From TrEMBL:
It comes from the Eukaryota. The chain crosses the membrane at residues 36-57, 69-87, 99-120, 126-151, 172-198, 210-232, 252-274, 294-316, 323-343. The keyword Membrane applies. This is Protein DETOXIFICATION. The lineage of its organism: Eukaryota, Viridiplantae, Streptophyta, Embryophyta, Tracheophyta. It is found in: Membrane. It comes from Eucalyptus grandis. Keywords: Membrane, Transmembrane, Transmembrane helix, Transport. One of its GO terms (biological process) is xenobiotic detoxification by transmembrane export across the plasma membrane.
Amino acid sequence: MGIMLGMGSALETLCGQAYGAGQLDMMGIYLQRSWVILNTTAVALCFLYIFAAKLLRLIGQTEAISEEAGMFAIWMIPQLFMYAMNFPIAKFLQAQSKIMVMAVVAGVVLVLHTVFSWLLMLKLGWGLVGAAVVLDASWVVIVAALLAYIFSGTCGRAWTGFSWKAFENLWGFVRLSLASAVMLCLEVWYYMALILFAGYLKNAEVSVDALSICMNILGWTLMAALGMNAAISVRVSNELGAAHPRTAKFSLIVAVISSFMVGLVLSAILLATQDVYPSLFSSDSSVQALVKELTPVLALCIVINNFQPVLSGVAVGAGWQAAVAYVNIACYYLFGVPLGLIFGFKLDWGVKVSFLSSSIILEVTVRLFAVILPLI
């Protein structure tokens, strides 16, 4: 997902600035180029899915975790190609501020997804295979609905049909796509690495369960921030394309303040319900106790995380993906991962360090971004 979403984010820069500059005819070409590049990448990534179980065993994960994850990965291959189609579509529509159609489609699919997840996973007992099948089907429906919307002519000059121009100047597009992918992957993979490291701790299953629950909660709370990320990216790219830098700067200030306030509210709700919400995710008392123990640090991480994506969105809108990739390397991997390993294993802090180190590193990220942002 990190690679697909990251490479698709190149369209945030190109389509956003093309829309702001009034070059609508190029938007459809950019969309098709992104499809070509992302679907080619998806073919290569299939091998990671196919050999996931063996790779996990190779790096020392438990047999049970490796088998379950490997089986799930193989069933999720169709979703990989839906990512390759959907992420460029989303950026293409966002650049035109056609947000409501995506929200409606996602809302309808969410209802169907919930019903069929219950039916296949719990009622029919398909377990993880059922989850994968429903996820695949949900993404197919989303992509089909959005393609129908685009092909119906609702995008005007932005979509005039398929063109061989999509295969021209691919290398320049690939370079920006790769820079976007590196920027996002360094961020996403950091959190995946935390869960991976949890598999090496004592009571690995409990640690992985608790950390996965917290990561999912963090992911849910980040939805508001990611929405703001998309909005500020579109606004900045549109305004820069139209040569309005002061408007872009004002939009940034509004987005940062709004996201920070939302983060405070979400953290307060989480702290107020820390005795209750763990039981919604697991019936295991040891998992519940560990999730409750992690809640204060999770709340701090939510506050910091909630405005960091806004700054990333500004960077994408301005086309600074390569510069941000260097920032992420320094913050997450020169500081974050080593600190996590030292605290978690050497000092025996266990799974608690996952959020503690990520909070510290994201704060460093924000400080580094503060140096870059005045360049707007």
